[in-house]
Amino acid sequence: MKKAILFIIDGLGDLPHPETGKTPLQTARLLNFERMAKEGSTGLMSTISNGVVPGSDVSHLQILGYDPKEFYPGRGPLEAYGANMELKKGDVAFRANFATLTGGKITDRRAGRIDSASAKKLESTINMKIDGVQFIFKATTEHRGALVMRGKGLSANITDSDPHHDNETPICKSLDKKSAKTAKLINKFTSEVYKKLNNHEVNKGREKPANVILLRSAGIAMQVPKFQEQFKLTAACIAGGALYKGIAKYLSIDVIEVDGATGDKNTSLTAKGNAAVTVLKNHDFVFLHVKACDSFGHDGDFEGKTNMLKRIDAELLPILRESGAAIIITGDHSTPCIRKAHSGHEVPILIWAKGERVDGGTTFDEIACMKGGIGHIRGKNVMPLILDIIEKAEKYGS
Amino acid sequence: MKKAILFIIDGLGDLPHPETGKTPLQTARLLNFERMAKEGSTGLMSTISNGVVPGSDVSHLQILGYDPKEFYPGRGPLEAYGANMELKKGDVAFRANFATLTGGKITDRRAGRIDSASAKKLESTINMKIDGVQFIFKATTEHRGALVMRGKGLSANITDSDPHHDNETPICKSLDKKSAKTAKLINKFTSEVYKKLNNHEVNKGREKPANVILLRSAGIAMQVPKFQEQFKLTAACIAGGALYKGIAKYLSIDVIEVDGATGDKNTSLTAKGNAAVTVLKNHDFVFLHVKACDSFGHDGDFEGKTNMLKRIDAELLPILRESGAAIIITGDHSTPCIRKAHSGHEVPILIWAKGERVDGGTTFDEIACMKGGIGHIRGKNVMPLILDIIEKAEKYGS
Q1: Which of A347, B101, B175, B269 is the most buried (most CB within 10 A)?
Q2: With a cut of 0.90, is the ipTM above it?
């Protein structure tokens, strides 16, 4: 039985360095990437369509075979899944964070970056019921968390209560008539939270008390076909970042917790690689995710991104090669260091699998892949290609 | 703030010359095109889809980011905009031309190519109201003009009144029940015009009197989102041909009048290039159009097309390169000289912008671009690519 690892290097694609004219992939000597390019085929992948700049949430859904036009629930529900919360159809979910409110205005949007342990202690105080609607909060790291509203007739067509700037008042506004109830409930919740948190024991002595919860990225929970049913594959996710685990959970992909998988530059690539090989024993498909290249791109840290690619090349690829699975390597989008932001530029893709066509290319970078044998594909083509490679594609017609 | 010039060389693409096996782009030595190809990336663009032969109106709408299936109002309204007429929603507009009617039949479809000044004198006589419907005519060059019908319940689902051949009677027929009123009005209009023009002073002594107006390409005026709102870009158009200015006006793109921009082979490329650089000062985006390559293609004039490309290379490209803007060069479709008509063959495209990926190609022609790093794209991809290059693309998802 053939199996596959889809390895997504977040923010992989880049633009030429203004001085050297080379991208990070071109700058590092990546012997294992080169070897796999020689033994496989490469190309370029446009996640949504040429020039379209995708967020990480939308791009992962698309690459994993779920058209975001149909299945993107907004960032809130995916973050809530990532915080290990359960969602029911009709729930409204948010990204949430502790902030400091003084005299009715926000004075610190991160409540002095409250530590995770202290934030955790506030969870139970925040969980409440207002007018029959449940507010369920979960703290994640530092000031961050997720919030789920559960009740009848809720809508996500509202503004953030997070004003996104200091010295402003947190307020949620409805964007249509149907969402007026939800907005009103959120504003009541904001007041209630302040009343309960402002004199809370945890906040005693804190210069910047965590006395309010700001909400953003509202989305309504929706049902989505399970990955296993959609593709007839048992699937596992190995990722450090909460969002990626949340996306996997949303698609009913098994999320494997790996010690040392941090979702940042200190992540243990060996641990993740070994975990991928292990879970392949009882799964057909592994979605393996490494975040740090994207973070280095956002920071404009060309050297950091280059070094992370070197680490992936040296520490992770040898393990994947030994797994016996088909390996598909790509990114979810480009995050050019010079832009410190996502861009719409195509991302290199590499298909390395026993018995597949070999295009004769020798390197894996943005320029070499322009001439790769896979050509220029779209994110929506990735899952069908993988299914075909591992002989799990269903015939269309007869 | 990054800016862009989209330079459309009308009818750019071609087929191999039957004797030399080379296209016009391959025949001329085009040093500036070569230089920009070396410094940028190339590819091929299929305006609508492979093999589909587009008219210039449809192809420009598509490349400028407006799906013609949704936003093509027909040629008539675009010509009316090009003649600097105002259109209201529901107006029916036509391409119009003076012709000579003798004994109820057309004897010259161009009224002896009446001069523009004489034609202009007939305008006010033709403007009239019939059964509450206004007929507004504007003469443009020689026998050509545009006509707008304004009133209630008009339809464009009618035949041309122009019989397209001499020795036939101009008559407009309705193509469904709803358009019967419009067709009847047009036939009344044709009679009225003849009555008023046949003995008009301008026609005294003319061997071929301009005594009738033939109408074709009916289209109903529709509202379209303004380019500036659609793409969050301030935009200007520099073109000689009326149709291209009309398309720009339809999309609410600022039309810049340039002395010496004629829309034919005698156009001043220097004047157009300089105007493009000037308007970039207060616009984000310039749509620059040169028509003559298409006209030479229609005439089957291979040498003329080749020489026009040489002129563009020598006179226009150096100015564009100096503008500091991202330069995107392509055509709206192919007009192979051997066919003397549009064809569905892909058109070369060149992206030349600071900081973008460079594909290593060295020439710009139909064959070299087959291997270009941009790959094979569609007309609808052009605007998203430009938005991404100048960092004006909105993120999809978060």
Answers
A1: A347
A2: yes
